[in-house]
Design brief:
Blueprint: H1 21-28, H2 32-40, H3 47-60, E1 78-83, H4 90-104, E2 108-113, H5 118-128, E3 134-138, H6 144-153, E4 156-159, E5 168-172, H7 174-186, E6 191-195, H8 202-217, E7 221-225, H9 235-245, E8 249-252, H10 255-267, E9 277-282, E10 295-298, H11 301-316, E11 326-330, E12 332-334
Parallel strand pairs: 1-2, 1-3, 3-4, 4-5, 5-11, 6-7, 6-8, 8-9, 9-10
Antiparallel strand pairs: 10-12
Helix pairs in contact: 1-2, 1-3, 2-3, 4-11, 7-8, 9-10
């Protein structure tokens, strides 16, 4: 990001202080990140937008004594993709979808595994700002303020986050969760649990809100369990909590958690779906290979990655319409063998 500059001759910004990138952006009618890109690598911005920014900078006297940035120090043609867990199959399609789009546009992809840590994600993001022209954050664990700050410093698109006024692509759980409730209610389930994901997961909270709404609509008792790490290893604790809750069915935050639950229930002698029904989320590779095959809410994962990448490429090209764009993609239920009729002999649950 270009540095702030006090021009020769005593020119000052609108607030009476030194002229900043934001001042130039306001005059040019573009985002601060667009101004930064024009000043550091103008070849990636449309001529019309670049001309408007340069004229605004000239009017304000921003950078008047600074030579143009040499091509040798411009950011490389790379885009960083940050994911919370590279071992999670959900992110396989994200990685593939973004890489294909970026390769076609002449960019390389820099992949970073943030290990479900907001601190690691912030550190990686700080590093990537100088080595990439843009960033895609998948299921970011950053705080709302940190995400907004990052978006003001580098062209950024968030995948499955919509709380910081940044361009975003969302996998909308609403339709899939509604279908899951219709399916489970038709099988006589009246007490259904939501097995939640990480405490700081924005998408987990969104799914719980949709879950609660669906439970009220269908007059079903809703139970919330967790939070749990979205990994198979968390499935044992989640399965034990499900048994204690006496719910006859559950919707897990993701398929990995649901698969871990299936394994634990098997070792405890709890039959699926005879004793309890399990629904996953995402429909990752391998969800249909479980024992039993997993009923799950199917998400358009690779499509979401491609949409996010296209959105970022538009931002890198200076398209003002992409600065605050939000795109939502629907989900749907895929029924397999992990759901069945609620146990009539134990109307209260499986305890």
């Amino acid at each position: 990001m270009a540095s702030e500059y006090v021009p020769q001759g005593g020119r000052v910004g609108p607030e009476g202080g030194k002229v900043t990138l934001r001042d130039v952006a306001n005059v040019a009618g573009v985002a601060t990140s667009t101004v930064s890109r024009v000043l550091s690598n103008p070849g990636r911005i449309s001529p019309k937008t670049a001309a408007a920014v340069m004229e605004a900078a000239r009017q304000l006297g921003y950078g008047a004594d600074k030579p143009p940035v040499a091509a040798s120090v411009a950011r490389p043609r790379a885009v960083a993709l940050l994911v919370p867990d590279i071992a999670n199959p959900f992110y396989f399609d994200i990685i593939h979808g973004t890489q294909e789009q970026l390769k076609a546009a002449g960019y390389i992809q820099l992949l970073v595994n943030t290990e479900e840590s907001a601190d690691l994600e912030q550190a990686a993001l700080n590093s990537m700002m100088s080595s990439s022209q843009g960033v895609i954050l998948a299921a970011s664990r950053l705080s709302t303020d940190s995400l907004a700050m990052a978006a003001s410093q580098v062209p950024l698109v968030a995948l499955n986050r919509n709380d910081a006024d940044v361009p975003a692509v969302l996998i909308d759980p609403s339709f899939g969760v509604q279908q899951a409730f219709q399916h489970l209610v038709s099988l006589d389930h009246r007490r259904i649990a939501y097995v939640s994901g990480p405490a700081h997961s924005w998408s987990s909270q969104w799914r719980w809100q949709v879950f609660e709404e669906a439970a009220r609509e269908h007059q079903v008792e809703a139970v919330r369990l967790g939070p749990y790490s979205p990994k198979q290893t968390s499935g044992a604790a989640a399965a034990d909590a499900l048994i204690t809750s006496r719910a006859t069915a559950c919707l897990a935050f993701n398929d990995l958690l649901a698969i871990g639950m299936l394994r634990r229930l098997l070792t405890r002698g709890v039959k699926v779906p005879e004793d309890v029904s399990i629904v996953g989320f995402d429909d990752i590779f391998g969800a249909d290979f479980c024992n039993p095959p997993l009923t799950t809410i199917t998400a358009p994962i690779e499509q979401a990655a491609r949409v996010a990448t296209s959105m970022l490429l538009k931002r890198l090209g200076g398209d003002p319409a992409a600065e605050r764009q939000v795109s939502q993609l629907p989900t749907y239920l895929t029924v397999r063998e992990s759901t069945g009729v609620a146990p009539s002999a134990r109307a209260g649950g499986i305890g």
